[in-house]
Task: structure prediction
Amino acid sequence: SSMKVPQGYAACKRLLASDSTRDALMVGALGVSLRLGLATAYALLSPRPLEQYGDISFDVVAQNLLNGNGFTNAPGLPYSNHVPVYIALLALSYVLIGRTWFAIGLLQSLLGGLTAVGVYALGRLLFDHKVGLLAGLIVAAYPYSINQACWLIDTTVFTLWLVLTVLCFLLAERKQGGWMDILCGLFMALGMLTRPTILAVLA
Result:
């Protein structure tokens, strides 16, 4: 077992030294920093109550979940205007960080960075390294995507599931199944439970 540690360390070092890993980290870091920077600017320059940062119904249902009232807009009244994944993520962020606007901004900034990395991987897979890097940088710095990550809305989460679904589908096709089939189904299901319109996009 003593030999596994240096071998594992060497493998990690090789991975981090590769151009693709460095570029993926750069794209992700840019995406996160731009989104979190704008979120912080909103909070400092235009402070408002949490419910004014987007669709308040997401926040209300998330609070009801945490308070033991179930998936409801008001206690005892079932709610079906939104599907549950984004609301569940909101509730989780409230538990881990607190019901603050920073919790939402941080969560969606991280997911936006992951989306940019996913697009970078798609570009590399379909074309080449340069195309992947350019595509990832465009998504990381795309103003609409940056702004959406700063609001109480499910766009950032939905986009991540969509990108991961397409990426896993392409990988499953090239590798002829296996775990990628399962991941493709998982991310598609998460997308449907965030915005059912993912089926129309993928069709």
User: Anything to note?
Assistant: Strands lie at 72-74, 77-78.
